[in-house]
Specification:
This protein has a single domain, classed as TIM Barrel (Alpha-Beta Barrel). The protein has eight helices and ten strands. The protein has a ten-stranded mixed sheet. Helix 2 crosses helix 3. It is of the alpha/beta class and 262 residues long. Helix 5 links the parallel strand 7 and strand 8 (184-187).
Length: 262
């Protein structure tokens, strides 16, 4: 059975940093959002600079239902933050709730069932996890007991999401991971550059490939933190700006109406 190993109340500089990082150890924030998302204004370059300054070695950009922000980050990483490896990912809005996929080569469209989305990710050789499974304010997957069966088909559970603001959502998520023998990870779920790395996961191994990440997940140590309430207030502003720019949420195909979550 898996265990969830937290490293509470520690600043990122205490745990990470190029000088402190032993060979073969990775410091990864595996759920973040760039300005490609409808609710973020963070440029990929600013996210990379923050990740490097906080000692992260890997940054997954997981925009809502698209991967172009992650691809941009990967293209500029060598110039902007050569110490940071970008993992191309996506937060997928399914008919059953949200999923996060990593190591993608193409975007998975919204509006699929969870089963279909998982199959689409696996067809690319990608990995998939459950984000904020018990967050009452977002499109969380575990809305009923039937959906809990899907936990056995994913690679990890977000046992700590820095944007889960109230309630026992993170505690329940950690318990879910242990109960199902799944690795638990900690993520910032950053929607601004300021939030990158406020929570992250320490891994033994190299998560730069899907196979490497799959192997490293078994060693996950969670470094937990929370996004500032004041930083979270930026999200509705970002949504308004993006709407004015014409960058709204990616819509599902017309034959797949989507109505889960905000």
């Amino acid at each position: 059975m898996a265990s969830v190993t937290p490293v509470p109340d520690r600043d990122i500089a205490e745990v990470a940093g190029p000088a402190a990082a032993p060979a073969g150890r990775a410091f990864a924030d595996l759920h973040t959002h760039s300005r490609a998302s409808f609710d973020s204004l963070a440029s990929p370059a600013s996210m990379l600079r923050t990740a490097a300054s906080r000692g992260l070695t890997h940054l997954a950009i997981t925009d809502h239902d698209r991967i172009d922000g992650a691809l941009e980050a990967r293209a500029i990483a060598a110039d902007v933050a050569p110490s940071v490896t970008v993992i191309v990912g996506e937060e997928i809005k399914t008919l059953d709730g949200d999923l996060v996929a990593l190591h993608l080569t193409e975007a998975v469209p919204p509006g699929l069932s969870a089963d279909e989305a998982i199959a689409a990710v696996r067809a690319q050789g990608g990995l998939i996890g459950i984000p904020h499974p018990f967050d009452r304010f977002r499109g969380s997957l575990l809305r009923n007991e039937r959906m809990e069966d899907l936990v056995d088909r994913v690679d990890w559970v977000e046992a700590h999401n820095a944007r889960v603001a109230v309630g026992k959502g993170n505690q329940q998520a950690a318990e879910l991971a242990v109960d199902h023998g799944k690795p638990g990870i900690a993520v910032s779920d950053a929607h601004s550059a300021f939030e990158v790395g406020v929570a992250y996961t320490v891994l033994d191994g190299d998560p730069s490939t899907a196979a490497g990440l799959r192997a490293a997940l078994a060693t996950a140590q969670l470094v937990t933190g929370r996004a500032s309430f004041y930083v979270r207030l930026w999200t509705p502003i970002a949504k308004t700006v993006q709407r004015l720019r014409g960058n709204g949420r990616v819509q599902p195909p017309s034959d797949r109406p989507l109505s889960v979550g905000p």
